[in-house]
Amino acid sequence: MEARQVSAALSAMPNKTDRTDAHGIAQILRTGWFSPVHMKSREAHGVRALLSTRKALLSKTMTWPMKCAVC
């Protein structure tokens, strides 16, 4: 569910407690008044983690102090 949409719906309620928030969320689910949110797959998260790790390693190796062979 879209967090901003649910927050807007719950902000109209006079009493703000965990119990009334849970009741409001259940009411939103029952009526179908929400828009589904796109979530990326586990594979996409894995690929993103590998790419960011590769980028970090490349930046570390580029800034690594190199010793001169002649010095």
Structure in words:
- The protein has about 70 residues and is an all-alpha fold.
- The protein has one domain.
- Helix content is about 65%, strand content about 0%.
- The protein contains three helices and no strands.
Cα-atom Rg, whole angstroms? Answer: 24 Å
Unreliable residue stretches: none
- Strand portion: under 5%
- Average of pLDDT: 85
Termini separation comes to 62 Å
- Portion in helices: 55-70%
Q: How many beta strands in the DSSP annotation?
A: 0
Structural class, from helix and strand content?
mainly alpha
Number of domains: 1
Largest sheet: none
Written as H for each helix and E for each strand, in order along the chain, the element string is: HHH
Assembly form of the protein? single chain
Overall body shape: elongated
Features:
mainly alpha; 63% helix; 3 helices; 71 residues
Spell out the blueprint of helices and strands.
Layout lengths: L2 H9 L6 H14 L10 H22 L8
Write a short abstract of this structure.
It is built from 3 helices and no strands. It has 71 residues and is mainly α.
